[in-house]
Write a structure and sequence with these properties.
single chain; alpha/beta; Rossmann fold; five-stranded parallel sheet; 5 helices; 5 strands; CheY-like_superfamily; Sig_transdc_resp-reg_receiver; Bact_response_regulator
Amino acid sequence: MAKILIVDDAPIVLKILRLVLSTEGHEVDAAANGKEALLKLESNVYNIAIFDVNMPDISGIELTKKALSSPNGKNLKVVILSTETSPEMRDKGKDAGAIGWLHKPFENEALINLIQSLL
């Protein structure tokens, strides 16, 4: 199982992600924004991170860049979670280092399958 960091400014999304992932046996840590996520990354090593794109302080794209360049982010696999569907936005995520993209609203099974494919 994996240690996963989930980051979203919507409490209900965090709740759903935590429920689905912990039910699958993963250890889940949550942050409500990018600043909080970077603090967690300073003292924890995660296998996978799921970042919302549109957050008030640091976008998921910028957070991806910062997380992957942090000392504890060297082996981190980042998935972007967003309502954004444009190819340009997906390219920005990929260019930042994200290796997966999940659209909101997501099916629980799609989330589970994506995480399993990254392990």
